[in-house]
Amino acid sequence: MSDTAARNDAEPATGRANIGVVGMAVMGSNLARNLASREGNTVAVYNRSATRTRTLVEQFPETGFVAAETVDEFVASLARPRTAIIMVQAGAGTDAVIEQLAERFEPGDIIVDGGNADFHDTIRRERALRERGLNFVGAGISGGEEGALKGPSIMPGGSAEAYETLGPILESIAAVAEGRPCVTHVGTDGAGHFVKMVHNGIEYADMQLIAESYDLLRRVGGHDVAAIADVFAEWNSGDLESYLIEITAEVLRQSDARTGGPLVDVIVDEAGSKGTGVWTVQNAVGLGVPVSGIGEAVFARAVSSKPVQRAAVRGVVGERPAVQARYDGFEDDVRAALYASKVVAYAQGFDLIIAGAREYGWQIDLGEIASIWRGGCIIRARFLNRIVEAYRRDPDLATLLADEYFADAVAQGEQAWRRIVSTAALSGVPVPGFASALSYYDALASERLPAALIQAQRDFFGAHTYRRTDAEGVFHTLWSADRTEVATEPSSH
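Given the sequence above, the corresponding C-alpha coordinates read:
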Protein backbone atom coordinates (compact mmCIF):
# COMPACT_ATOMS: atom_id res chain seq x y z
CA MET A 1 0.00 0.00 0.00
CA SER A 2 1.26 3.52 -0.74
CA ASP A 3 1.92 6.12 1.94
CA THR A 4 -0.98 8.11 0.54
CA ALA A 5 -3.41 5.23 0.92
CA ALA A 6 -2.09 4.53 4.40
CA ARG A 7 -2.62 8.12 5.47
CA ASN A 8 -6.10 8.07 4.00
CA ASP A 9 -7.23 4.94 5.87
CA ALA A 10 -5.43 2.43 8.02
CA GLU A 11 -7.45 -0.51 6.66
CA PRO A 12 -6.16 -2.50 3.67
CA ALA A 13 -7.29 -1.00 0.37
CA THR A 14 -7.61 -4.33 -1.45
CA GLY A 15 -11.05 -4.75 -2.99
CA ARG A 16 -12.68 -2.00 -0.94
CA ALA A 17 -13.88 0.39 -3.67
CA ASN A 18 -16.98 -0.30 -5.74
CA ILE A 19 -15.98 2.39 -8.25
CA GLY A 20 -12.73 4.02 -9.34
CA VAL A 21 -11.85 7.20 -11.21
CA VAL A 22 -8.70 7.68 -13.28
CA GLY A 23 -7.73 11.28 -14.03
CA MET A 24 -7.83 13.94 -11.34
CA ALA A 25 -8.18 17.11 -13.42
CA VAL A 26 -11.21 19.24 -12.57
CA MET A 27 -13.85 17.03 -14.20
CA GLY A 28 -12.38 13.80 -12.84
CA SER A 29 -11.86 15.09 -9.31
CA ASN A 30 -15.36 16.62 -9.19
CA LEU A 31 -16.90 13.39 -10.45
CA ALA A 32 -14.95 11.42 -7.82
CA ARG A 33 -16.16 13.78 -5.09
CA ASN A 34 -19.74 13.41 -6.32
CA LEU A 35 -19.44 9.62 -6.25
CA ALA A 36 -17.93 9.66 -2.76
CA SER A 37 -20.73 11.86 -1.43
CA ARG A 38 -23.39 9.26 -2.25
CA GLU A 39 -24.31 6.57 0.21
CA GLY A 40 -22.96 3.15 -0.67
CA ASN A 41 -20.04 4.32 -2.79
CA THR A 42 -16.40 3.86 -1.88
CA VAL A 43 -14.23 5.55 -4.49
CA ALA A 44 -10.70 4.68 -5.58
CA VAL A 45 -8.75 7.51 -7.20
CA TYR A 46 -5.64 7.47 -9.37
CA ASN A 47 -3.77 10.01 -11.46
CA ARG A 48 -0.60 9.64 -13.47
CA SER A 49 0.84 12.41 -11.31
CA ALA A 50 0.65 11.12 -7.74
CA THR A 51 0.98 14.67 -6.41
CA ARG A 52 -2.42 15.57 -7.79
CA THR A 53 -3.98 12.53 -6.10
CA ARG A 54 -2.36 13.40 -2.76
CA THR A 55 -3.56 16.99 -3.00
CA LEU A 56 -7.14 15.89 -3.66
CA VAL A 57 -7.16 13.43 -0.75
CA GLU A 58 -5.67 15.99 1.64
CA GLN A 59 -8.07 18.70 0.51
CA PHE A 60 -11.18 16.52 0.91
CA PRO A 61 -10.47 14.02 3.73
CA GLU A 62 -14.19 13.53 4.36
CA THR A 63 -14.57 11.68 1.04
CA GLY A 64 -12.84 8.55 2.30
CA PHE A 65 -11.07 8.18 -1.03
CA VAL A 66 -8.98 5.05 -1.51
CA ALA A 67 -5.92 6.64 -3.09
CA ALA A 68 -3.46 4.84 -5.33
CA GLU A 69 -0.10 5.91 -6.66
CA THR A 70 0.26 3.14 -9.23
CA VAL A 71 -2.09 1.41 -11.64
CA ASP A 72 -1.54 -1.87 -9.81
CA GLU A 73 -2.58 -0.30 -6.50
CA PHE A 74 -5.62 1.22 -8.16
CA VAL A 75 -6.74 -2.09 -9.68
CA ALA A 76 -6.14 -3.95 -6.41
CA SER A 77 -8.35 -1.48 -4.55
CA LEU A 78 -11.41 -2.25 -6.71
CA ALA A 79 -14.03 -4.82 -5.74
CA ARG A 80 -15.22 -7.25 -8.42
CA PRO A 81 -16.56 -6.71 -10.95
CA ARG A 82 -13.95 -3.98 -11.11
CA THR A 83 -15.44 -0.74 -12.43
CA ALA A 84 -13.31 2.25 -13.40
CA ILE A 85 -14.25 5.55 -15.01
CA ILE A 86 -11.56 7.19 -17.14
CA MET A 87 -11.57 11.01 -17.16
CA VAL A 88 -8.47 11.85 -19.17
CA GLN A 89 -7.81 13.70 -22.42
CA ALA A 90 -9.49 12.10 -25.41
CA GLY A 91 -7.39 10.28 -27.98
CA ALA A 92 -4.07 8.57 -27.37
CA GLY A 93 -4.17 9.30 -23.65
CA THR A 94 -7.47 7.47 -23.29
CA ASP A 95 -6.19 4.49 -25.29
CA ALA A 96 -3.09 4.29 -23.07
CA VAL A 97 -5.13 4.21 -19.85
CA ILE A 98 -7.57 1.69 -21.32
CA GLU A 99 -4.70 -0.64 -22.17
CA GLN A 100 -3.14 -0.27 -18.71
CA LEU A 101 -6.41 -1.29 -17.09
CA ALA A 102 -7.26 -3.99 -19.65
CA GLU A 103 -3.93 -5.74 -19.00
CA ARG A 104 -4.88 -6.06 -15.31
CA PHE A 105 -8.65 -6.45 -15.41
CA GLU A 106 -10.42 -9.82 -15.63
CA PRO A 107 -13.43 -11.01 -17.65
CA GLY A 108 -16.61 -9.19 -16.63
CA ASP A 109 -14.80 -6.08 -15.35
CA ILE A 110 -15.94 -2.70 -16.65
CA ILE A 111 -13.97 0.21 -18.13
CA VAL A 112 -15.89 3.45 -18.64
CA ASP A 113 -14.74 6.37 -20.80
CA GLY A 114 -16.47 9.46 -19.43
CA GLY A 115 -14.77 11.95 -21.75
CA ASN A 116 -15.92 13.55 -25.00
CA ALA A 117 -14.73 10.73 -27.23
CA ASP A 118 -15.49 10.27 -30.91
CA PHE A 119 -18.15 7.55 -30.94
CA HIS A 120 -16.28 5.75 -33.74
CA ASP A 121 -13.38 5.30 -31.29
CA THR A 122 -15.86 4.02 -28.71
CA ILE A 123 -17.21 1.42 -31.15
CA ARG A 124 -13.64 0.30 -31.89
CA ARG A 125 -12.65 0.14 -28.23
CA GLU A 126 -15.80 -1.70 -27.18
CA ARG A 127 -15.29 -4.36 -29.84
CA ALA A 128 -11.63 -4.87 -28.93
CA LEU A 129 -12.28 -5.17 -25.20
CA ARG A 130 -15.32 -7.40 -25.69
CA GLU A 131 -13.04 -9.85 -27.50
CA ARG A 132 -10.90 -9.88 -24.34
CA GLY A 133 -13.93 -10.57 -22.13
CA LEU A 134 -14.10 -7.03 -20.76
CA ASN A 135 -16.99 -4.57 -20.76
CA PHE A 136 -16.33 -1.13 -22.23
CA VAL A 137 -18.80 1.71 -21.79
CA GLY A 138 -18.65 5.06 -23.55
CA ALA A 139 -20.58 7.45 -21.32
CA GLY A 140 -21.43 10.99 -22.33
CA ILE A 141 -21.41 13.24 -19.27
CA SER A 142 -22.90 16.72 -19.57
CA GLY A 143 -23.05 19.56 -17.10
CA GLY A 144 -19.53 20.88 -16.98
CA GLU A 145 -17.52 21.15 -13.78
CA GLU A 146 -20.53 21.99 -11.61
CA GLY A 147 -22.59 19.16 -13.07
CA ALA A 148 -19.81 16.64 -12.46
CA LEU A 149 -19.78 17.66 -8.79
CA LYS A 150 -23.48 18.19 -8.09
CA GLY A 151 -25.26 16.00 -10.64
CA PRO A 152 -24.75 15.68 -14.41
CA SER A 153 -26.85 14.22 -17.18
CA ILE A 154 -25.25 10.90 -18.11
CA MET A 155 -25.57 9.01 -21.40
CA PRO A 156 -23.92 5.57 -21.08
CA GLY A 157 -23.67 3.07 -23.91
CA GLY A 158 -22.16 -0.41 -23.70
CA SER A 159 -23.71 -3.75 -22.87
CA ALA A 160 -26.78 -4.44 -20.77
CA GLU A 161 -24.56 -6.63 -18.57
CA ALA A 162 -22.29 -3.68 -17.79
CA TYR A 163 -25.26 -1.44 -17.02
CA GLU A 164 -26.51 -3.85 -14.35
CA THR A 165 -23.46 -2.96 -12.28
CA LEU A 166 -22.86 0.56 -13.54
CA GLY A 167 -26.47 1.80 -13.68
CA PRO A 168 -27.11 2.10 -9.92
CA ILE A 169 -23.77 3.88 -9.44
CA LEU A 170 -24.51 6.42 -12.17
CA GLU A 171 -28.07 6.88 -10.95
CA SER A 172 -26.69 7.75 -7.52
CA ILE A 173 -24.76 10.77 -8.88
CA ALA A 174 -26.95 11.99 -11.75
CA ALA A 175 -29.09 15.10 -11.67
CA VAL A 176 -32.75 14.51 -10.86
CA ALA A 177 -35.62 15.94 -12.92
CA GLU A 178 -39.29 15.27 -12.32
CA GLY A 179 -38.25 12.78 -9.62
CA ARG A 180 -36.09 10.69 -11.98
CA PRO A 181 -32.30 10.47 -12.26
CA CYS A 182 -31.04 11.93 -15.54
CA VAL A 183 -29.36 8.77 -16.78
CA THR A 184 -30.48 5.92 -19.03
CA HIS A 185 -28.84 3.06 -20.86
CA VAL A 186 -28.76 4.68 -24.31
CA GLY A 187 -27.76 1.66 -26.37
CA THR A 188 -24.87 -0.61 -27.24
CA ASP A 189 -21.20 0.26 -27.98
CA GLY A 190 -20.93 3.90 -29.16
CA ALA A 191 -24.56 4.96 -28.66
CA GLY A 192 -23.86 6.97 -25.52
CA HIS A 193 -21.09 9.05 -27.04
CA PHE A 194 -23.11 9.51 -30.25
CA VAL A 195 -26.04 10.95 -28.30
CA LYS A 196 -23.68 13.16 -26.27
CA MET A 197 -22.23 14.43 -29.55
CA VAL A 198 -25.71 15.36 -30.77
CA HIS A 199 -26.43 17.01 -27.41
CA ASN A 200 -23.36 19.20 -27.91
CA GLY A 201 -24.41 20.03 -31.46
CA ILE A 202 -27.81 21.18 -30.25
CA GLU A 203 -25.98 23.18 -27.57
CA TYR A 204 -24.06 25.00 -30.33
CA ALA A 205 -27.31 25.89 -32.09
CA ASP A 206 -29.02 26.99 -28.87
CA MET A 207 -26.12 29.28 -27.95
CA GLN A 208 -25.99 30.80 -31.45
CA LEU A 209 -29.72 31.55 -31.43
CA ILE A 210 -29.43 33.22 -28.02
CA ALA A 211 -26.47 35.27 -29.26
CA GLU A 212 -28.43 36.38 -32.33
CA SER A 213 -31.33 37.38 -30.07
CA TYR A 214 -28.98 39.48 -27.96
CA ASP A 215 -27.51 41.12 -31.06
CA LEU A 216 -30.95 42.00 -32.43
CA LEU A 217 -32.15 43.41 -29.10
CA ARG A 218 -29.05 45.59 -28.94
CA ARG A 219 -28.53 46.70 -32.55
CA VAL A 220 -32.13 46.92 -33.71
CA GLY A 221 -33.99 47.12 -30.43
CA GLY A 222 -31.63 49.79 -29.09
CA HIS A 223 -31.45 48.28 -25.60
CA ASP A 224 -28.39 48.61 -23.40
CA VAL A 225 -26.81 45.48 -21.96
CA ALA A 226 -28.51 45.78 -18.56
CA ALA A 227 -31.93 46.02 -20.21
CA ILE A 228 -31.21 42.98 -22.35
CA ALA A 229 -30.25 41.05 -19.22
CA ASP A 230 -33.69 41.91 -17.84
CA VAL A 231 -35.33 40.68 -21.05
CA PHE A 232 -33.57 37.31 -20.81
CA ALA A 233 -34.45 37.03 -17.12
CA GLU A 234 -38.10 37.61 -18.02
CA TRP A 235 -37.94 35.03 -20.81
CA ASN A 236 -36.52 32.56 -18.31
CA SER A 237 -39.80 32.65 -16.40
CA GLY A 238 -41.78 31.42 -19.40
CA ASP A 239 -41.61 28.72 -22.07
CA LEU A 240 -37.97 29.59 -22.85
CA GLU A 241 -36.87 28.72 -19.32
CA SER A 242 -33.49 27.01 -19.56
CA TYR A 243 -29.99 26.92 -18.14
CA LEU A 244 -28.56 28.77 -21.14
CA ILE A 245 -31.14 31.58 -20.95
CA GLU A 246 -30.52 31.83 -17.19
CA ILE A 247 -26.75 32.16 -17.51
CA THR A 248 -27.12 34.61 -20.40
CA ALA A 249 -28.85 37.05 -18.05
CA GLU A 250 -26.09 36.52 -15.48
CA VAL A 251 -23.31 37.03 -18.03
CA LEU A 252 -24.90 40.25 -19.30
CA ARG A 253 -25.19 41.61 -15.77
CA GLN A 254 -21.50 41.05 -15.06
CA SER A 255 -19.51 44.29 -14.88
CA ASP A 256 -15.87 44.52 -15.88
CA ALA A 257 -13.63 45.38 -12.93
CA ARG A 258 -11.22 47.38 -15.10
CA THR A 259 -13.60 49.56 -17.09
CA GLY A 260 -16.80 49.46 -15.06
CA GLY A 261 -18.74 48.64 -18.20
CA PRO A 262 -20.37 45.34 -19.19
CA LEU A 263 -17.90 42.46 -19.26
CA VAL A 264 -19.35 41.26 -22.57
CA ASP A 265 -18.12 44.48 -24.22
CA VAL A 266 -14.46 43.79 -23.46
CA ILE A 267 -14.44 40.12 -24.47
CA VAL A 268 -12.98 39.56 -27.94
CA ASP A 269 -15.78 38.51 -30.29
CA GLU A 270 -14.16 35.26 -31.39
CA ALA A 271 -15.88 32.07 -30.19
CA GLY A 272 -13.87 28.94 -29.55
CA SER A 273 -14.79 25.32 -30.10
CA LYS A 274 -13.68 21.93 -28.82
CA GLY A 275 -14.85 20.04 -31.88
CA THR A 276 -18.01 18.18 -30.89
CA GLY A 277 -20.19 20.54 -32.93
CA VAL A 278 -17.98 19.87 -35.94
CA TRP A 279 -18.32 16.12 -35.36
CA THR A 280 -22.09 16.51 -35.28
CA VAL A 281 -22.15 18.22 -38.66
CA GLN A 282 -19.63 15.83 -40.22
CA ASN A 283 -21.60 12.77 -39.15
CA ALA A 284 -24.90 14.33 -40.16
CA VAL A 285 -23.54 14.93 -43.66
CA GLY A 286 -22.39 11.31 -43.82
CA LEU A 287 -25.82 10.08 -42.75
CA GLY A 288 -27.66 12.45 -45.11
CA VAL A 289 -29.39 14.35 -42.29
CA PRO A 290 -29.81 18.12 -42.70
CA VAL A 291 -28.73 19.81 -39.46
CA SER A 292 -28.50 23.30 -40.90
CA GLY A 293 -29.16 24.99 -37.55
CA ILE A 294 -26.24 23.21 -35.94
CA GLY A 295 -24.12 23.69 -39.05
CA GLU A 296 -24.72 27.44 -39.14
CA ALA A 297 -23.82 27.67 -35.45
CA VAL A 298 -20.53 25.90 -36.16
CA PHE A 299 -19.83 28.12 -39.15
CA ALA A 300 -20.75 31.27 -37.21
CA ARG A 301 -18.04 30.45 -34.68
CA ALA A 302 -15.63 29.87 -37.54
CA VAL A 303 -16.49 33.25 -39.10
CA SER A 304 -16.02 34.99 -35.76
CA SER A 305 -12.55 33.47 -35.50
CA LYS A 306 -11.34 34.92 -38.84
CA PRO A 307 -10.20 38.43 -37.81
CA VAL A 308 -8.03 38.96 -40.89
CA GLN A 309 -10.86 38.21 -43.31
CA ARG A 310 -13.32 40.24 -41.28
CA ALA A 311 -10.99 43.24 -41.28
CA ALA A 312 -10.35 42.88 -45.02
CA VAL A 313 -14.05 42.93 -45.87
CA ARG A 314 -14.75 45.84 -43.54
CA GLY A 315 -11.98 47.70 -45.34
CA VAL A 316 -13.67 47.48 -48.75
CA VAL A 317 -17.34 47.61 -47.79
CA GLY A 318 -18.99 50.93 -48.43
CA GLU A 319 -22.06 52.22 -46.68
CA ARG A 320 -23.84 49.60 -44.61
CA PRO A 321 -27.63 49.23 -44.60
CA ALA A 322 -29.45 51.53 -42.22
CA VAL A 323 -30.73 49.70 -39.16
CA GLN A 324 -34.48 49.37 -39.40
CA ALA A 325 -36.52 51.26 -36.84
CA ARG A 326 -37.61 49.24 -33.85
CA TYR A 327 -41.34 48.56 -33.97
CA ASP A 328 -43.87 47.88 -31.22
CA GLY A 329 -43.68 44.24 -30.20
CA PHE A 330 -40.14 43.77 -31.51
CA GLU A 331 -38.94 42.05 -28.34
CA ASP A 332 -41.88 39.64 -28.43
CA ASP A 333 -41.06 38.87 -32.07
CA VAL A 334 -37.45 38.05 -31.14
CA ARG A 335 -38.70 35.71 -28.41
CA ALA A 336 -41.08 33.96 -30.83
CA ALA A 337 -38.35 33.62 -33.46
CA LEU A 338 -35.99 32.20 -30.85
CA TYR A 339 -38.53 29.61 -29.76
CA ALA A 340 -39.41 28.53 -33.31
CA SER A 341 -35.74 28.29 -34.31
CA LYS A 342 -35.03 26.29 -31.15
CA VAL A 343 -37.74 23.80 -32.15
CA VAL A 344 -36.02 23.36 -35.52
CA ALA A 345 -32.59 22.80 -33.92
CA TYR A 346 -33.92 20.09 -31.61
CA ALA A 347 -35.95 18.51 -34.43
CA GLN A 348 -32.79 18.25 -36.52
CA GLY A 349 -30.83 16.82 -33.58
CA PHE A 350 -33.40 14.11 -32.93
CA ASP A 351 -33.52 13.33 -36.66
CA LEU A 352 -29.78 12.69 -36.45
CA ILE A 353 -30.21 10.36 -33.46
CA ILE A 354 -32.83 8.41 -35.40
CA ALA A 355 -30.50 8.10 -38.41
CA GLY A 356 -27.54 7.11 -36.23
CA ALA A 357 -29.58 4.45 -34.47
CA ARG A 358 -30.66 3.02 -37.81
CA GLU A 359 -27.11 3.05 -39.23
CA TYR A 360 -25.38 1.49 -36.21
CA GLY A 361 -28.12 -0.84 -34.99
CA TRP A 362 -28.95 0.94 -31.74
CA GLN A 363 -32.32 0.80 -30.00
CA ILE A 364 -32.62 4.36 -28.68
CA ASP A 365 -35.72 5.59 -26.83
CA LEU A 366 -36.05 9.21 -27.96
CA GLY A 367 -38.41 10.10 -25.13
CA GLU A 368 -35.88 8.79 -22.63
CA ILE A 369 -33.14 10.91 -24.19
CA ALA A 370 -35.28 14.04 -23.88
CA SER A 371 -36.08 13.01 -20.32
CA ILE A 372 -32.46 12.73 -19.16
CA TRP A 373 -31.63 16.08 -20.77
CA ARG A 374 -34.13 17.83 -18.47
CA GLY A 375 -31.61 18.14 -15.66
CA GLY A 376 -27.86 18.41 -15.17
CA CYS A 377 -26.87 19.05 -18.78
CA ILE A 378 -26.10 22.31 -20.57
CA ILE A 379 -29.26 22.26 -22.71
CA ARG A 380 -31.59 21.49 -19.80
CA ALA A 381 -34.84 23.37 -20.29
CA ARG A 382 -38.58 23.37 -19.62
CA PHE A 383 -38.91 22.88 -23.37
CA LEU A 384 -37.68 19.28 -23.04
CA ASN A 385 -40.83 18.25 -21.18
CA ARG A 386 -42.70 18.99 -24.39
CA ILE A 387 -40.36 16.72 -26.34
CA VAL A 388 -40.88 13.91 -23.81
CA GLU A 389 -44.65 14.32 -24.25
CA ALA A 390 -44.32 14.36 -28.05
CA TYR A 391 -42.54 11.01 -28.15
CA ARG A 392 -44.97 9.54 -25.64
CA ARG A 393 -47.79 10.48 -27.98
CA ASP A 394 -46.00 8.99 -30.99
CA PRO A 395 -42.70 7.10 -30.57
CA ASP A 396 -42.41 6.94 -34.39
CA LEU A 397 -42.90 10.66 -34.95
CA ALA A 398 -41.49 11.63 -38.38
CA THR A 399 -40.18 14.95 -37.04
CA LEU A 400 -40.80 17.04 -33.94
CA LEU A 401 -42.17 19.72 -36.26
CA ALA A 402 -45.11 17.41 -37.01
CA ASP A 403 -46.08 16.97 -33.36
CA GLU A 404 -49.32 18.76 -32.56
CA TYR A 405 -47.82 20.95 -29.82
CA PHE A 406 -44.75 22.01 -31.77
CA ALA A 407 -46.66 22.46 -35.03
CA ASP A 408 -49.03 24.83 -33.25
CA ALA A 409 -46.22 26.66 -31.43
CA VAL A 410 -44.31 27.27 -34.66
CA ALA A 411 -47.46 28.33 -36.51
CA GLN A 412 -48.25 30.88 -33.81
CA GLY A 413 -44.76 32.37 -34.02
CA GLU A 414 -44.28 32.08 -37.77
CA GLN A 415 -45.12 35.66 -38.76
CA ALA A 416 -42.93 37.05 -35.97
CA TRP A 417 -40.12 34.75 -37.14
CA ARG A 418 -40.43 36.11 -40.69
CA ARG A 419 -40.51 39.71 -39.49
CA ILE A 420 -37.33 39.19 -37.48
CA VAL A 421 -35.39 37.54 -40.32
CA SER A 422 -36.55 40.26 -42.73
CA THR A 423 -35.68 43.06 -40.32
CA ALA A 424 -32.25 41.58 -39.69
CA ALA A 425 -31.53 41.24 -43.42
CA LEU A 426 -32.62 44.80 -44.14
CA SER A 427 -30.52 46.06 -41.21
CA GLY A 428 -27.36 44.17 -42.16
CA VAL A 429 -27.44 42.16 -38.92
CA PRO A 430 -26.32 38.53 -39.44
CA VAL A 431 -28.81 35.92 -38.17
CA PRO A 432 -27.61 32.66 -39.76
CA GLY A 433 -29.30 30.58 -37.09
CA PHE A 434 -32.72 32.20 -37.40
CA ALA A 435 -32.56 32.37 -41.20
CA SER A 436 -31.40 28.80 -41.75
CA ALA A 437 -34.04 27.46 -39.35
CA LEU A 438 -36.75 29.37 -41.22
CA SER A 439 -35.49 28.13 -44.59
CA TYR A 440 -35.48 24.55 -43.31
CA TYR A 441 -39.05 24.94 -42.09
CA ASP A 442 -40.11 26.46 -45.42
CA ALA A 443 -38.43 23.62 -47.30
CA LEU A 444 -40.34 20.99 -45.34
CA ALA A 445 -43.58 22.91 -45.74
CA SER A 446 -43.21 23.47 -49.52
CA GLU A 447 -45.38 21.47 -51.89
CA ARG A 448 -42.56 21.35 -54.43
CA LEU A 449 -38.85 22.18 -54.24
CA PRO A 450 -36.35 23.26 -56.93
CA ALA A 451 -34.53 19.97 -56.38
CA ALA A 452 -36.31 18.83 -59.57
CA LEU A 453 -34.10 21.22 -61.54
CA ILE A 454 -30.98 20.03 -59.72
CA GLN A 455 -31.80 16.42 -60.56
CA ALA A 456 -32.33 17.36 -64.21
CA GLN A 457 -28.95 19.10 -64.24
CA ARG A 458 -27.32 16.01 -62.70
CA ASP A 459 -28.91 13.84 -65.38
CA PHE A 460 -27.65 16.23 -68.09
CA PHE A 461 -23.97 16.19 -67.15
CA GLY A 462 -23.68 12.83 -65.41
CA ALA A 463 -26.57 10.60 -66.50
CA HIS A 464 -27.64 10.35 -62.85
CA THR A 465 -31.28 9.59 -63.85
CA TYR A 466 -34.50 10.88 -62.32
CA ARG A 467 -37.96 9.72 -61.33
CA ARG A 468 -41.21 11.14 -62.73
CA THR A 469 -44.26 12.41 -60.87
CA ASP A 470 -46.63 10.62 -63.23
CA ALA A 471 -45.02 7.23 -63.82
CA GLU A 472 -43.21 4.48 -61.95
CA GLY A 473 -39.57 3.71 -62.66
CA VAL A 474 -36.33 5.57 -63.27
CA PHE A 475 -35.56 7.60 -66.41
CA HIS A 476 -32.76 9.28 -68.31
CA THR A 477 -32.94 11.84 -71.11
CA LEU A 478 -30.44 11.38 -73.97
CA TRP A 479 -29.25 14.98 -73.67
CA SER A 480 -26.30 14.67 -76.08
CA ALA A 481 -28.33 12.79 -78.69
CA ASP A 482 -31.96 13.31 -79.72
CA ARG A 483 -33.13 14.08 -76.16
CA THR A 484 -35.63 11.27 -76.04
CA GLU A 485 -36.39 9.82 -72.65
CA VAL A 486 -35.53 6.19 -71.84
CA ALA A 487 -36.30 3.98 -68.89
CA THR A 488 -33.15 2.88 -67.13
CA GLU A 489 -31.63 1.56 -63.95
CA PRO A 490 -31.12 4.07 -61.12
CA SER A 491 -27.72 5.74 -60.95
CA SER A 492 -25.47 4.85 -58.03
CA HIS A 493 -24.09 8.42 -57.88
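Confidence is low (pLDDT under 50) at residues 1-12. Try to locate this feature in the C-alpha coordinate string yourself.
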